[in-house]
Amino acid sequence: MNEPARQCWRVAPGGSVAGNVRVPGDKSISHRALMLGALADGDTHVTGFLEGEDCLATARALAALGVRIERPAAEELLVHGAGAGGLKAAAAPLDLGNSGTAMRLMTGVLAPQSFDSTLVGDASLMRRPMERVVVPLQMMGARIHTHEGRPPVHIRGTPQLRAIHYSLPVASAQVKSAVLLAALAASGTTRLTEPAPSRDHTERMLAAFGVRLAREGRTLALEGGQRLTGSAVRVPADFSSAAFFLVAGCLAAERSLLLTNVGVNPTRTGLLELLRRMGADIRVHPAPGAAEAEPVADLEVRRSALRGISVPESLVPLTIDEFPAFFIAAACATGETLVRGALELRVKESDRLAAMAEGLGALGVEHQLLPDGLWIRGAASLGGGTVDSRGDHRIAMAFAVAALRAREPLEILDTANVATSFPGFIESARAAGLDITHD
Ligand code: S3P
User: Fold this and answer.
1) CB 122 within 8 Å of CB 100
2) Spatial contact of 179 and 192, defined as CB atoms under 8 Å apart
3) Confidence class for position 291, pLDDT limits 50, 70, 90
4) 3-state helix, strand, coil in the chain (%, to 5)
5) How many Cβ atoms are within 10 Å of 137's Cβ, its own excluded?
């Protein structure tokens, strides 16, 4: 439960962005490559792996559970699968750092084991709700205890889980994935019904590992007892990291800014649709490779005159991690932008509605914080000053981009957690044209 050093950034106002940016590998897919690789028979070769703190926490947890993981080269891993029933009890609680995905998905992995486990994390993760995965897993027969719904998560391993039919109360890929991972070891066919589509990386990767998974409308069905076969996983660049540069490009790419090899799974790209509705000039150049589990494209963006919009609630789950960047686009657009139905943003790495409202207020942007969203009136330029990222990587990166339209320098506090999802952000941002330093 080590807390990272705080750190702070200074970003000069104005400027422009241009050139080619290759952002690091997808965080969601990297976590899943490790976990499915660990549960599989045989080896899994991962390329494009995100060497960010969140995924490294998952790798360390799996190593503590007896999984052998090699790193033949940068961003490349060889996971020697332990096979079904091959994990071993860890000697100490597993520390998942800042990562909600790691904690929730690992709860699904560990619930059906023949040993007990305890999961902990940093101060942010220890505040986040775990009931959402505990409830369906308990329905399957799992024995899990939390502290009033929050970590530490104590798991009494229960190898005899049974299938359930569960309707998810909120669209959540983490809940869906935790149940699917537990369902692999349960008796019978587990059925999951989603209220709206959420990211489907788990389903795609399970199929690539040889698991049969049926989908009928909003319901998924997975028969327990299936074994996974190790596979090759090519992790594309993370759309959620590319998002900051997409918005930067809309604000300040006089010539074009090109983001290469980006994952464009349609369950992730709500931001593309929202920016286009605002008038953004973004071109998608799909990469060949129809057989790949995940679609990939180069994204080309140019400075655009953005107009405020009202965000349809159906696009909220498909944009869920991109709202910090989106709110900066809205703050620089003409007219008003309204987001509702985004209550989930309150339980991310920080309360992202409150953190963004506070930061926008510091920059002099007219806004209103709503219980489940945010209303913003865009401005031709933003002020400067100090913004507290609250230790949330995406809040920090969003405000770094905002500096492109600021009149005064920006100081962004508590930025060390950017290393959870985007190691090398400062270098990439500088290469694109941002004038950013840290202490
Ligand atoms: C993730 C799912 C999303 C997202 C998170 C990563 C995943 O959370 O916000 O950053 O990898 O499954 P929810 O499923 O809770 O919406």
Assistant:
1) no
2) yes
3) low
4) 35, 25, 40
5) 28
pLDDT at 141 over 70: yes
Length of the chain counted residue by residue: 439
**CA angle centred on 344, ends 264 and 7, rounded to 5°:** 80
75 CA from centroid of ligand 1 (Å) = 22
Cα dihedral 325, 259, 409, 305 in deg (nearest 10): -70
**125-127-129-133 Cα dihedral, nearest 10 degrees:** 40
Question: Using CA positions, which residue lies closest to atom 15 of ligand 1?
Answer: 172
- Nearest ligand 1 atom to alpha carbon 31: 11
Give the pLDDT confidence of 49-108 residue by residue, as tens digits. 999 999 999 999 999 999 999 999 999 999 999 999 999 999 999 999 999 999 999 999
Q: Are strands 94-95 and 257-263 parallel, antiparallel or unpaired?
A: unpaired
Which residues line ligand 1 at a C-beta cut-off of 6 Å? 28, 101, 172-174, 177, 198-199, 320-321, 344
pLDDT higher than 60, residue 2:
no
The structure's pTM equals: 0.98
Tokens of 329: 């686009």
CA distance 357 to 366: 9
Percent of the chain clearing pLDDT 70 (strictly above): 98
Ligand 1 midpoint to CA 335 (Å): 30
